[in-house]
Every structure is written in C-alpha cells, then in structure tokens.
C-alpha cells in the first residue's frame, strides 16, 4: 500500500458513497454467512470522537492496542512504524487471539523493526512483522518481533495451517540502497513455538514486488499479486507447491511459479464491462523466478507474451474462485486504458477470468488517487475497504445488497495546518469469533480493536 491511493468515496446519506458497477453479491460467494456484516444498510452515521482519534457508529468503541514508539512488552525495543497488512489467528489458550502485523518500512523508516537473534534476515533492512497476543477482552498479553531484517512488508495472507506469509513489495538486490541481501521475497511468519518463523525466504515463490497472496484450500495452489510501480506493471501469478497443503514449513520444498496469460489481452485495463468473461486462461512458467538479471514481469514468455495490469493489490479466496484487485489504471502512466478500480475473479476449474466489479468514476469528486485498495472479507460476510490517500481516511463497509456505509474515520492528523493529512487505514481483519474488527493506522502507526453490535 502506498499513501497515494484512496477509495473512491464522497459524502452521502451515511457520510459515504462508492460508485461501482457489476454484481457486488459475487464478492460474498462462499463466505461463512450470506447476510453480510452491516446488514442491508450499515450501522448509521459516524459519531465524532471527543478524543479526536477514531470516529465510529453509535454503539461501537475502540481500544488502542499498540502505537509506534511505545516500548515492546518483550523488551526488544520500540513498536516499529508504518503498520500495514495484518491477520488474526486463534490461540490454543482459550479465547486468545494472535495478531501478526506487517511494517512497510523502507530504508528511511522512522522506527525500524528491532533486530533479534534468530529472527533477522538482513540486519541492514528495517522492515518486518510484529505479533500481539490478546486475551478475550483484547488486553495485550504480549507483543514482540516476529521477523526482522526484511523490507517494505506490505500485505501477504494467512496459510491454511495458521501462519502468516509476509510479502516484500520491493526488488532491491544486495548492495543497493544499503541492503546486504537480495529482497523481493515472501517469508513464512509464525507466532508460537508450534509455528516458528523462518528467516529463509520462499525463493521458489518468486522475487518481485509482492503485494498479497491467497491459497486455494482444495489443492494448496497459491495465487500472488504484483504491485509494480512502473510500466509495464505487474503480473498475476500462481505457485504450484511441491508439497501442497503440507503444513508449516512445507513451502520451502519448492515448486513452480507461473504467470497468467489472457489470450489476446496484454493489458487488463482495456476491459471495462462488468461480467466480461474470458475462457481458456493460460499459465506460463516464469523463466527465472529469482529475477537474477531481469524482473519477472519483463522476462520472455514466448509467443503471445503475457498479461499485465497496473496496481494489482488485494487477493483472497471465496467459494471456488480467487479474487484480485487492480486499484487503478492510467493511460498517462502507461496503461492502455483508464479505470478507477477493478475486481477480478478467476475460476481454476473452468479456467475462466471474469471482471466482477468496476469502481467509479464518481461524478461528484474526482481527485488523483481515488481508487480501491486492499479489500477484506469479514468472517460473517460483508466487505471492508480501507481508504488510502490524502485528506480524511475511512474504513468503508459494503454489503452484498449494494449498500455502502462508513465504519470508521481516522481523526489523527499527521499533516500540517496548511496541508492536513490523515494516515491511511490498513490490515483490516476480524477475530476468529467475529466479535472484534482489528485495523491499523499506517501513520502514526496504531493498531485498534473495534467492538460493538456487529450484525452477523
């Protein structure tokens, strides 16, 4: 996630509106409950927070779990900056929850992830993950480093065996920008003795500007998005593991990395019609997953080339398909067409790719960077979208009935009087029992627990 992206939103009856077209109900296929978090219309208007931190609907309350610069209870140093992607896991200790949280730190980060013996990949890199153990009342029992010495840890995704795959959104090599090792990998992060962290990168899964991943729970295939910043932009990948669904550590056995080819469609931005379906999707072996000489997106994929897309972001599994997001496309930056955000569905059994939803443009407000970013499926149904850009920042909810509602507004001003700015939201996730929504504020780095009358 970068600070220039923002959900396409405007003021409305409930303080928010998102312009989109397509079958929104498609996004909720296969979720645990069909009715959707937020019911048909959400939870009502946001109530201003007298403390000036987080506005929420009536009946909801927040708790600050962690903030950049605070002392880590583990004694390892300070809470790092740039809180980003995150996932929640159940604990064997009754009612406890583990949060594993990314820190999208580059070399100029304000507060680096502290280096810890046995948990550090590159001692010259400032990114990584931290983990928090919470009791049933969201009291922080422990907070510590989960992995250090990585870079630009943006998003990722949970594994079927309850580990977190953290993704580096960079591709600097050793000797560049002060790094002592190559970067652009995925790492498997644990949070307990039963699920330890490995500081060895999952090299077979590719070295590129990773964003997010999602597992096919039926066969262990892993889908990966690439958020490349420069033309010709990123690819959509799948990883065929040598030991599918082998459990913790099995991804280190290797596998085959492939890139998606949509015949006769070199750039997904040209597709503008929701419901448009492409059959016969092909998967082409990536010639050099380690990108020793040439970035994976620029390698030779033979006759027919390969299919690119600008700003590939969120990735998740729902029902029998994998969904992924293209935040935006701009002809001025090299895309073949403009759009304000797409959500795509790939059905592996049918080998079909379908454009499910197109966002915007909103007719009332069109500011640079107003596009959807990562999206989160609530365990009980519904969709949460984190706003990311300049100005006021929100978490918006979308119901399967097409209603859009505000769930939270960040009131922590991180800008100046002349140029106000609010830190983006990131890492929205829910507790295993669906009673709490956890969310990060990117800057100032803050992790919240939000409880209230959730509709399930």
TrEMBL record:
<dbReference type="InterPro" id="IPR008557">
    <property type="entry name" value="PhoX"/>
</dbReference>
<dbReference type="Pfam" id="PF05787">
    <property type="entry name" value="PhoX"/>
</dbReference>
<dbReference type="InterPro" id="IPR006311">
    <property type="entry name" value="TAT_signal"/>
</dbReference>
<protein>
    <submittedName>
        <fullName>DUF839 domain-containing protein</fullName>
    </submittedName>
</protein>
């Amino acid at each position: 996630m970068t600070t220039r992206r923002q959900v396409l939103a405007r003021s409305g009856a409930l303080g928010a509106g998102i312009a989109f077209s397509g079958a929104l109900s498609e996004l909720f296929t296969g979720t645990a409950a069909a009715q959707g978090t937020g019911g048909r219309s959400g939870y009502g208007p946001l109530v201003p927070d007298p403390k000036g931190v987080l506005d929420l609907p009536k009946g909801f309350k927040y708790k600050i779990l962690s903030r950049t610069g605070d002392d880590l209870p583990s004694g390892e140093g300070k809470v790092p900056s740039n809180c980003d992607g995150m996932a929640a896991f159940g604990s064997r200790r009754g009612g406890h929850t583990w949060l594993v949280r990314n820190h999208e730190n580059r070399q100029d980060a304000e507060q680096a992830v502290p280096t810890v013996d046995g948990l550090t990949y590159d001692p010259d890199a400032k990114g990584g993950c931290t983990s928090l153990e919470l009791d049933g009342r969201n009291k922080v029992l422990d907070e510590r480093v989960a992995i250090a010495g990585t870079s630009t840890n943006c998003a990722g995704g949970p594994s079927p065996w309850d580990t977190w795959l953290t993704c580096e959104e960079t591709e600097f090599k050793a000797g560049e920008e002060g790094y002592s090792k190559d970067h652009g990998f995925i790492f498997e992060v644990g949070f307990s003795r039963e699920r330890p962290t490995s500081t060895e990168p999952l090299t077979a899964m590719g070295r590129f500007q990773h964003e997010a991943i999602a597992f096919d729970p039926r066969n262990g295939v892993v889908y990966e998005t690439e958020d490349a910043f420069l033309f010709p932009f990123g690819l959509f990948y799948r990883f065929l593991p040598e030991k599918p669904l082998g459990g913790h550590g099995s991804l280190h056995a290797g596998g085959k990395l492939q890139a998606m080819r949509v015949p006769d469609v070199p750039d997904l931005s040209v597709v503008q019609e929701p419901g448009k379906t492409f059959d016969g999707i092909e998967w082409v072996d990536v010639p050099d997953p380690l990108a020793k000489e040439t970035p994976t997106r620029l390698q030779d994929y033979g006759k027919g080339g390969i299919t690119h897309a600008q700003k590939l972001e969120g990735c998740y599994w729902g029902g029998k398909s994998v969904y992924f997001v293209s935040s935006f496309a701009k002809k001025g930056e090299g895309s073949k067409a403009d759009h304000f955000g797409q959500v795509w569905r790939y059905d592996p059994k049918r080998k079909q790719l379908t454009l499910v939803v197109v966002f915007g443009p909103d007719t009332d407000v069109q500011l640079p960077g107003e596009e959807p970013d990562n999206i989160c499926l609530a365990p009980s149904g519904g969709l949460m979208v984190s706003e990311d850009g300049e100005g006021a920042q929100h978490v918006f909810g979308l119901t399967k009935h097409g209603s859009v509602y505000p769930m939270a507004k960040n009131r922590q001003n991180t800008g100046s009087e002349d140029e106000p700015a609010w830190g983006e939201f990131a890492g929205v996730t829910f507790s295993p029992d669906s009673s709490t929504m956890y969310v990060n504020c990117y800057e100032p780095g803050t992790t919240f627990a939000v409880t209230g009358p959730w509709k399930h």
